Amino acid sequence: MTERPLTPVLVGPTGVGKTAVAVALASLTPITVISADARQVYRDLDIGTAKPDRATLGRVPHRGLDLIHPGERYSAGRFARDAAGWIAEARAAGRPPVVVGGTGLYIRALAEGLFREPPFDPARREQLRHWCEALPGADLARWAGRLDPQFLGGGRQRAARAVEVALLTGHALSWWQREARESGTLHPWYIQLTVPREVLHRRLAARVDDMLRAGLVSEVQRALATGVAPDAPGFDGIGYREVVAMLNGELPESELRGTILVATRRYAKRQETWFRNQLRDARSGMRDAEGVWTLDASDDAQTIAAQIFERWGHMTHPASRIPHPD
Q1: What is the pTM of this model?
Q2: Rounded mean pLDDT of 202-228?
Q3: Which CATH architecture has domain 6-113+186-212+267-320?
Q4: Which member of 40, 71, 225, 302 has the greatest number of CB atoms within 10 A?
């Protein structure tokens, strides 16, 4: 199999500064940003999804934005197929792609391929489900470890999944995941941006305030006026659903900011948990120890981008180093 170029994949919770770091990185080397954000695919939903502004898009090519209208659906599988084309185009143009986003399933589908399980016998699967439910958690985890030596823990649901796949297919879940990874588009270098919780909360509060000042409510009103249903895909995102509730009289206007902020904090926490588990699994299947880099993003974006640029250069073969503008 042809060696795939190393591709940075910037991940982390909403508000951690992924877009700002990517834009700063673009000032050091000409890149194309591949947005892996399930909310930014919607046209005309710009403020609540924190899309880059027009000036930024004019300087730094972005793909994965404004793909569908609110009310339509867009899957992880479709993203992986589309993004493979965008990545090929970027490389052909001499602009290394950098994947940026917080939608974990999109990133997993692109970087590692989607594990498509074979058909299971429904009766055997149901019988096995009951057996797993009856086991104490520690015993279930031990079974998972015996059946899949690469099982790293993570709760009853993950353990039951490992047991189910191993017993019903004859292959460990990690085996299936390695097979899927071979079909992935990328040789990913995950850069997980993190900040202390109090810093993230301050950034999220500032982001909510900025969105409301920029006209989030008016953006929702304009979309509704075009005939988009209040419960349409796109409006189920944080910020939009709260504004819809306010416009419908279900949420007092005085509570709008606080409600959005609480929901955003909870979402950021879920993202952190997802990436922590996902990247732990990714480490177990990677060829090199530097496949995942956790980076404190408390500094300004330009400083963080400089760190990434330097390390990216060291990790890339000298014959194919990333370009630097003269």
Answers
A1: 0.78
A2: 97
A3: 3-Layer(aba) Sandwich (3.40)
A4: 40
